[in-house]
Design a protein that fits this description.
- By secondary structure, the protein is mainly alpha-helical.
- It has a domain of 101 residues: Helix Hairpins (Orthogonal Bundle), CATH 1.10.287.370.
- The chain is 60% helix and 8% strand.
- It is built from 3 helices and 2 strands.
- Strands 1-2 form a two-stranded antiparallel sheet.
- This is Prefoldin subunit 2.
- Keywords: Chaperone, Coiled coil.
- It holds the Pfam family Prefoldin_2.
Length: 148
Amino acid sequence: MASKSGSSGLREPPNEQAVLNIYEAMRSELSQIYSNITELEMQVSEHSLVINAIQPLDQSRKCCRMIGGVVVERTIKEVLPAVQRNKEGLEEVVKNQYEKLEKKKKDLTEFEAKYKIRLRKQDESKEDSTKKEGNAQGVLVGTASSSQ
């Protein structure tokens, strides 16, 4: 029984298909980390916009804040520090995700080197599929559909 990919003490995969499955799982995990980072960076950006919008206003002015799906009325004086703390926390999580991303990239590179994995260039695979389907009628290949 193979254990989770990327962990030390991993037994050798029994065949090429197992190596491919582990590799695809590692790539999928890398893609998920990229998605998480993008989403978190968007939240940091939104927090910055809110901070910039309310900071110059009168501190006693009322504002609304969503807490756990409920909109509550507070003053800017109460809300601003909480939004700043949340932004700092998000920035810390983004930093940790980048560290995790670098580790996973390194693991993936080592796995590629160990099993001599090479990826076909996307252009080569498109050319191959175009040559194979060149005689087909009504088949769109690539991004041609966006020009219609």
